[in-house]
């Protein structure tokens, strides 16, 4: 896949079959669009192209951090595996936000990226004040001889698939299983292992304490999860706790701790990529350390069963 980042890196390809959007999470709706792009490019001998932005436009326009499902690099890896021919990443700045919808189409897409056909969602908006829409694209397409295709919402069991819905499932409900279904892959976080206070070891469940490498990635709601952890080419089953550890009075802040099943290697300062398979329960307070240990033993039983039956035996980018 060709990867072009920044206006200076652009090469004009008039044969481009393109779409425009953030594509965070690369969910099933996104995948349907990419599949259509790739097929059209094969049929016409063109180049399937995604034009996206970094940072997220809302981060610039609202001056608020936006938590994401996937980094640009993760999106590139997934999109490449789906057969996309080119990914163009444009810097979204305040100056860029003032570009009119007409100039965005003609000056950028037609003249700099190249445009034979464009495929967008039915509610796609773009340009200054988000005044550009499908009707404007169709009108300019007739003028400048490019085709416009429109996709309608993709649904799973009457549920409209969107990046916003996936974020909500993860952050508010902790429903990592449904989120994985909508993205066609489990949500993941990558962190570096740091030393903790050793409480897990005292309970018979030593944990790897993680500091996220990408602090603006979506973290699932507080609770206990079944996970599969990628480490140096291996996939290791485990269970992960996200929360404030209410059973430990002196605990402060939010902790991300993962216990790896049947694994005892030294991994301090190493990187782990954690893939979330299923939520076991929410975070709870316990009357004693003994009660907490009993709950963890039950969590382990559930985790092993889920791992045996998981539809994601080997989690990869595709």
In summary, what is this structure?
By secondary structure, the protein is α/β, with parallel strands linked by helices.
Task: Summarize the structure in words.
The protein is 33% helix and 27% strand. By secondary structure, the chain is α/β, with parallel strands linked by helices. The chain has two domains: 158 residues, Rossmann fold (3-Layer(aba) Sandwich), CATH 3.40.50; 134 residues, Elongation Factor Tu (Ef-tu), domain 3 (Beta Barrel), CATH 2.40.30.30. A hairpin with a 2-residue loop joins strand 7 and strand 8. The mean pLDDT is 91.
Topology (elements, then pairings):
Blueprint lengths: L1 E4 L10 E5 L7 H17 L2 E8 L2 H5 L10 H10 L4 E6 L2 H4 L3 H13 L3 E5 L12 H11 L2 E5 L3 E2 L2 E2 L2 H11 L2 H8 L4 E7 L4 H4 L5 E5 L10 E9 L2 E10 L11 E6 L10 E11 L7 H21 L9
Parallel strand pairs: 1-4, 2-3, 2-5, 3-4, 5-6
Antiparallel strand pairs: 7-8, 9-10, 9-14, 10-13, 11-12, 11-14, 12-13
Query: What is the CA-based Rg, rounded?
Result: 22 Å
| Mean pLDDT figure | 91
Superfamily at the CATH H level of the largest domain?
Answer: HUPs
Structural class determined from secondary elements:
alpha/beta
CATH topology of the largest domain: Rossmann fold
**Total domain units:** 2
How helix-rich are the residues, as a percent range?
A: 25-40%
Count the helices. How many? 10
Strand order of the biggest β-sheet: 1-4-3-2-5-6
CATH architecture level-2 label of the largest domain: 3-Layer(aba) Sandwich
Order of helices and strands: EEHEHHEHHEHEEEHHEHEEEEEH
Alpha carbon gap, first and last residue: 14 Å
Tally the beta strands: 14
